[in-house]
Design goal:
By secondary structure, chain B is mainly alpha-helical. Chain B has helices spanning 2-30, 37-55, 57-80, 87-109, 119-122, 134-156, 158-168, 170-175, 180-202, 214-227, 232-252, 258-272, and strands spanning 114-115, 124-127, 130-133, 207-208. Chain C is an alpha/beta fold. A seven-stranded mixed beta sheet of chain C has the order 7-6-8-9-10-13-14, with helices on both faces. Classes of the chains: A mainly alpha, B mainly alpha, C alpha/beta.
């Protein structure tokens, strides 16, 4: 497909999303907003795992941190805009600090190390009752006073802007090349003068930034928080979204966030939650069996043969010891 | 007090070790993380619970291990074999399997936690002033027995040599005529039945519910990393360390953060030893 | 003959055509009431019978015209005792089913989620089971909490404890969930006031099933009494582990699961320990006649609906009462406008099955309407009221 055709597909896709409020009722619009907010944290995995080849099991920790910083501050009377700024800055800073030791770890060591961070944040949110109200739940969070349709267009704009930025970094900038070189062959990258540690730290902080933003939006939109929303299981749910989307494809991440948030609701027709989740698990397995590249891989095949060639060239050039997909070296 | 802390620590350690060695075997052979291991624990516990009234407790443990061996074969075919080389997909696929298993168990056994009483629960020994039920001592004894068997299997049997060959270099192992698929399947079968034993043994100490096994699995991860991924002996050592530290910390530090303490220990260790206390072999570095 | 048959046909047709409007004249205006309960997940044991209680209340209210000119039309949704599921269910009820009133959830964290959605949509809401403090106060003018809240429950418990037991030192053990943490706070305060020395004060993580380290510490601290607040599955876990440790220090429990679960799990062990707990209600011969009447009609019905025997618990009763309170508020307001309904709810003075319900300025229920008692496990595996 030519570039022009690819652009047409993109425009149609965005137009389709933008028309959502006219096609669905308030309930599904709510789901779409949540899915677009969750897309941010799935993007964070795209950056970490897809671009830089790092694996984190603790993204829910950053989301929870962002959400609670925003929530607690607005409850204490800080204006929402300032609270939102803190809610983004703090997780980013924590991500940077955590990155200092974590970026030195490899593969699964990093994954489990970050899992520890996620467990710690969840337990802190639950136990620091004086600050977070713990399991009693935080109510009375102030927001920006937007109605639902405005919320939808805001988060759609944010999700699209981040998507465009990520696609740009991935395909058109030197940073994208640097990230890939770190992902596929760390030693050669270092030999070429790339500061591998710095690049990893950057990816880690950027991911924390995206996850923190997701938390802020979540808190501002839902306006209640409980620690149960940020348990470690959530980190794995995000990871599942990223993999079904095809790790490394930001577009796939967005579509996967939309689909995997929507499906459990659409499956309500099955009645029983158990049966519903059973079908959900099976669907994830089917996607992995028949679309090993996830949704992103499918998209590449459909609309980007030129790019696919380039991709597979890099993939072949990569040694079998890919930090994530290969040995946990 | 001290005896109590040690007994508590050993029970935790035995439980974590049984789960962790399974995970580590699978990882060593296939470079895959089995996220359904916690659910293998749960299935083992429920199978033993269901079978005990008919065949007695000890045979029920064996039955649970056998049933889970079958589950292991299924897991290997659905969640691991299709994804050789794309480990992240295998991880998510095993996560998908764990969702399926939890919900199946909820449909079969319901969501109300069940009390699993064995004759050994009623027998209790007194250490100092506090009673310890025979069931809890059995957890320790059986873990030691099973882990010793596994150690022998890995170190001295032909299957163990194949395990080690495949985890060192799958291509060369295949070239030497080792059926890597069969070895991979055996690793999941073993891992899954050891998890079943963990569930069947600790089930009567706690209660059974379909969402059991998750926390234990997270702690087992910490044990594996401490001991070095893919290394059976290191993993057992890691589990012992985590169990003991948790047991001591629960008494002297805090109970509200017990999982964080395990992971805190892990993170501190990783800062000083980024490759675990018992590092993986160096040739895997590249 | 032919014309006779035609006449008959015409008459039948005419009646068939006339019948619906005739019915519609007597039928009342339907009001949709959303009820969110944990119908799946680890609290489904409670949600499913409570659903039957709600259905029974709606049927009675409609049959006896207790909702005035309105006909109650209940729409159920699953909250699974989980905030995210409850949030989605509340969204669905409000936006798709367009319910005009909400009742529900079980777990406080889920009810908090529901309260926020309902408050934003300005839909009057009754929280009938969750006891976390001040959910209604924090969520704003449309939210009401028709159950005694934790601080009030625990005040009663502390008072009763001091009355029924002789002790000067105590250990407080809680699970760090909402019941546990507020229990710890409130009981510590009362004990401090009364000069009871708290020798051990431990919150344990709710995902940690290993209570042995706590039992070890109890052994070391030797308190006169152990007071614990541990919920759901963990409660039985603790009792089992406590009993196996041969400890003989009396044990008091706040709020374990209902007898048909808890006693099935660890009735034997609890009997051996003589476990004491606080409760709103125990099915025994001394209970008030209105409770006896409720049990008489509810238990056969729930057995038919669920296919198994289900002994009545207070969660069933308060759900029944909540639907009746909604009917009562509708009758008095005569309108489904949120502001009218909320105003009517504020003036509630309803004699329910479990209690007499009146609301205070924070829209929490007035605790004086509730009875509170201590019950003890007996060696035979039964339960008795502590006199």
């Amino acid at each position: 497909m030519s570039d022009a055709a690819a652009w047409i597909v993109r425009v149609v896709f965005v137009a389709f999303l933008a028309a959502t409020p006219f096609m669905v009722d308030a309930y599904w619009l709510n789901m779409a907003i949540l899915a677009l907010i969750y897309a941010l944290v799935v993007y964070s995995i795209t950056v970490l795992t897809g671009f830089a080849g790092l694996l984190s099991f603790g993204q829910a920790g950053f989301v929870g941190l962002g959400a609670y910083v925003y929530g607690v501050m607005t409850v204490k009377g800080v204006p929402p805009a300032a609270a939102a700024a803190w809610g983004v800055v703090l997780p980013t800073a924590v991500g940077f600090l955590l990155g200092l030791p974590a970026a030195r770890l490899r593969g699964h060591y990093m994954a489990i190390g970050t899992l520890g961070f996620g467990v710690l944040v969840a337990q802190l949110l639950n136990n620091m009752v004086d600050v977070t109200r713990g399991p009693m739940g935080l109510l009375g969070i102030k927001s920006f006073g937007l109605d639902r349709v405005s919320w939808f267009y805001c988060v759609l704009a944010i999700a699209m802007a981040v998507l465009a930025a990520l696609e740009h970094v991935d395909r058109r900038t030197f940073l994208g090349v640097v990230l890939k070189s770190v992902k596929y062959d760390e030693i050669s990258a270092a030999a070429c003068g790339i500061g591998v540690f710095g690049v990893k730290l950057l990816a880690f902080s950027a991911a924390a930034f995206l996850a923190g933003s997701c938390g802020v939006l979540l808190a501002a939109y839902m306006r209640f928080l409980t620690p149960d929303l940020f348990l470690s299981a959530e980190s794995f749910r995000y990871l599942m979204m990223a993999v079904v989307g095809g790790v490394g494809s930001a577009t796939g991440a967005l579509i996967s966030a939309l689909i995997l948030t929507g499906i459990p609701e659409a499956l309500r027709a099955f009645g029983e939650t158990n049966v519903r989740l059973l079908v959900y698990g099976l669907m994830v397995l089917f996607v992995l069996w028949f679309l090993p590249g996830g949704i992103g891989g499918l998209l590449e095949r459909l609309i980007g043969p030129r790019r696919k060639r380039r991709r597979s060239a890099t993939a072949q050039a990569a040694p079998k010891g890919d930090a994530v997909a290969g040995r946990a070296s | 007090m001290l005896v109590q802390i040690i007994v508590n620590g050993l029970i935790l350690a035995g439980n974590y070790a049984l789960i962790a060695v399974g995970l580590t075997l699978i990882f060593g052979v296939m470079r895959m993380v089995n996220f359904a291991e916690g659910q293998s624990v749960m299935m083992g516990a429920f199978v033993a619970f269901t079978a005990t009234p008919f065949i007695g407790y000890l045979p029920a443990i064996a039955l649970a291990m056998l049933t889970n061996a079958v589950l292991g074969v299924i897991l290997e075919r659905t969640a691991f074999r299709p994804f050789r080389g794309v480990e992240l997909n295998g991880l998510i696929a095993s996560m998908g399997m764990s969702i399926i298993l939890i919900n199946l168990a909820e449909l079969v056994w319901g969501t109300v936690p069940q009390s699993f009483d064995t004759p050994l629960n009623a027998v209790s020994f007194t250490f100092g002033t506090v009673g310890v039920s025979a069931q809890r001592l059995l957890v320790i004894a059986a873990s030691v027995l099973l882990l010793t068997c596994l150690w022998w299997l890995v170190q001295h049997s032909s299957l163990g040599r194949q395990f080690r060959a495949v985890s060192e270099d799958p291509e060369v192992a295949a070239a030497m005529g080792i059926n890597t698929n069969a070895v991979a399947r055996m690793s999941v079968v073993l891992g899954s039945s050891l998890a079943a034993a963990a569930g069947a043994l600790t089930g009567p100490v706690n209660l059974l519910s379909p969402d059991m096994g998750q926390t234990e699995m997270l702690n087992a991860f910490a044990a594996i990393i401490l001991g070095g991924f893919g290394n059976v002996n290191g993993t057992i050592f890691g589990a012992l360390l985590i169990g003991m530290v948790q047991s001591v910390a629960a008494v002297y530090l805090s109970n509200a953060y017990s999982n964080s303490i395990a992971f805190g220990l892990l993170v501190v260790t990783l800062i000083f030893f980024p490759r675990g206390l018992v590092p993986e072999r160096l040739e895997e570095n590249v | 003959m032919k014309s006779g048959a035609q006449l008959l046909l015409a008459a039948t047709l005419g009646m068939a055509l006339l019948a619906p409007p005739a019915l519609a004249q007597t039928a009342q205006t339907p009001v949709k009431i959303g009820v969110i309960l944990p119908l799946t997940g680890n609290t489904a044991w409670g949600g499913r019978p409570a659903k039957v209680a709600a259905e029974m209340a709606a049927e009675e209210a409609n049959a006896q015209g207790l909702a005035g000119k309105f006909k109650l039309d209940l729409v159920f949704a699953d909250g699974a005792c989980d905030p995210r599921t409850t949030y989605a269910s509340a969204e669905k009820l409000l936006n798709q089913d367009k319910v005009q009133f909400l009742i529900g959830e079980w777990c406080s964290s889920a009810s908090v989620a529901m309260a926020q959605v309902a408050a934003d949509a300005k839909v009057p809401t009754l929280i009938q089971i969750s006891t976390a403090d001040f959910i209604a106060k924090n969520a704003g003018p449309y939210i009401f909490q028709s159950i005694m809240q934790n601080r009030e429950i625990q005040d009663r418990e502390a008072k009763l404890l001091l009355e029924k037991f002789k002790f000067t030192t105590a250990a407080i053990l809680v699970e760090n969930n909402d019941f546990g943490l507020s229990f710890r706070q409130n009981i510590s305060r009362v004990f401090k006031e009364k000069g009871i020395k708290v020798v051990l004060d431990i919150p344990q993580d709710r995902q940690d099933t290993n209570w042995y380290s706590i039992i070890t510490q109890i052994q070391g601290a030797k308190p006169d009494i152990v007071v614990a607040s541990i919920a759901a599955g963990q409660a039985a876990n603790f009792v089992k582990q406590y009993s196996e440790s041969n400890l003989t220090i009396p044990l008091f429990f706040d709020y374990p699961p209902p007898p048909y679960i808890f006693e099935k799990q660890v009735g034997q062990q609890a009997g051996k320990l003589g476990l004491v707990r606080g409760a709103f209600f125990l099915k025994d011969p001394d209970m008030p006649p209105r409770e006896q009447a409720f049990i008489g009609k509810f238990e056969p019905r729930v057995e038919q609906a669920l296919g198994e025997k289900h002994p009545t618990v207070h969660w069933d009763i308060v759900t029944y009462d909540a639907v009746m309170m909604a009917a009562d508020a509708l009758t008095r307001s005569g309108s489904v406008k949120p502001d009218d309904l909320a105003a009517a709810l504020t003036k509630t003075d309803h004699q329910g099955v479990l209690a007499r319900y009146r609301f205070d300025a924070d829209r929490g229920v007035n605790p004086e309407g509730f009875d509170f008692l201590f019950i003890r496990n007996t060696l035979g595996g039964g339960l008795e009221v502590v006199k």
